Amino acid sequence: MAFAGMRNTLAGGRVDVLLRFRPDIDALYEADNGEARTRHMRHTALVGLILYNLYNITSFYLLSDIHDFTVLVRVLVQTPACLVIFWAIPRVGSFWREFMVLPAMLGVTLFSVVVVLMSKSPLAAYTLGELSLALVFANMLMVFRFRYALAMTLITCTVTIAGLSVKAGLDEGLRISLMLQMVICCIFTLYANWHAEFQRCRSYLAELDARTRAATAEEIGSHFRDLSRTDALTGLPNRRHLDMELSARLERGAPLAVMMVDVDFFKLFNDRLGHAAGDECLRRIGAALAESAAGAGGFAARLGGEEFTLLVDGDETAGRALAEDAINAIRSLSLAHPGRPDGAPLVTVSIGIAWGRGETPQTAHRLIARADRALYEAKRQGRDRLSAAA
User: Which of 306, 316, 359, 377 is catalytic?
Assistant: First the structure.
């Protein structure tokens, strides 16, 4: 299971073998977690620095011949350097934030090896116990990025073993024991770091995948919501969308003009030219009405069959202006209508207008009914015209 999880995490090139995210994912991770990472590193560095200076006490016993030197280096060199890093961590980019801690930790670990080689104290070798805690601090507490943990651990292990190999006067049994302890500590803390980093990468990729799935689901849901509110033939909003838009505009409490639009003698057009031509006619009329409505800040919908509805904020004046523009737009299409009984050569529309204001469903129903009655009046008067509700 563990190896399967590792293969899945590394698959697709989103994370490499050193547990580095692909650049685009790394940028996302930094945006999501950079601030928290910065706080963690600063708090951990401050605690580590305070505890590290307590080694000045152990140096008094283990490195009695060079105690003053070790205290001066810790207090006057290493501590100020660490404080500079503490100050810089929130002020640099993510690369330098992670990288600049590496030389600081190497300075701590290698300093322990140097003072062991310098000291003639019979207890000097026990100072190497500091290395184990330094590795625990870097790899497990601060949780270095794995590539830096790997570099620090390998360098520390190599230098320590080399130092122990040349340390004069050291009991062979103690020399071998310290070497073995160092190797075990390096393996243990490096594995712990790798595991923590691997889980970090896997968890974030899982979170990213979950976000992607949620966004995709929302996009699909939005698509289907749009389909449920769109007329398939013309691409205009359908009756359901019209009801929602009408209610929303009435809730504002401002005057609203409602126009019922009907294609004149459309059944005869269909009978003479066929349904394919009828569908194309409705599509072109729908596009013209939508353009007219958009120009007036209004709304166009297909009610059903050859009936359309227009909405525009305002009173009778606004309604008349949009209705006249819509009638002229349909005329300008110059769609031939060979079956009209009144002898007119082109496809035209009749429009009924009503206006009002209110916030109740009854208001919407009354406006639609009044506009519908006005539409029938426009037809009675001869079609290809508008009529306003009394």
Answer: 306
Q: How far is CA 1 from the centre of its chain?
A: 30
Residue type, position 301, single letter: A
**368/390 Cα distance (integer angstroms):** 14
Mention every residue, 6+ apart, whose C-beta is less than 8 A from residue 341: 265, 268
Q: What is the pLDDT of residues 24-82, one digit of tens each?
A: 999 999 999 999 999 999 999 999 999 999 999 999 999 999 999 999 999 999 999 99
Measured distance CA(186)–CA(261) in Å, rounded: 82
| Tokens encoding 329 | 């737009």
Mean pLDDT score of the chain: 91
94-127 in b/e form (b: 16+ CB < 10 A) is beebbeebbebbbebbbbbbebbeebebeebbbb
Question: Which residues, in sequence order, are CB contacts of 108 under 8 Å at separation 6+?
Answer: 52, 78, 130, 134
Residue 172 catalytic?
A: no
Query: Residue 309 has which token pair?
Result: 């509805």
Sign of CA dihedral 63, 66, 71, 77: negative
Q: Pairing mode, if any, of strands 256-263 and 307-313?
A: antiparallel
Q: What is the pLDDT of residues 210-236, one digit of tens each?
A: 888 888 777 776 666 665 788 889 989
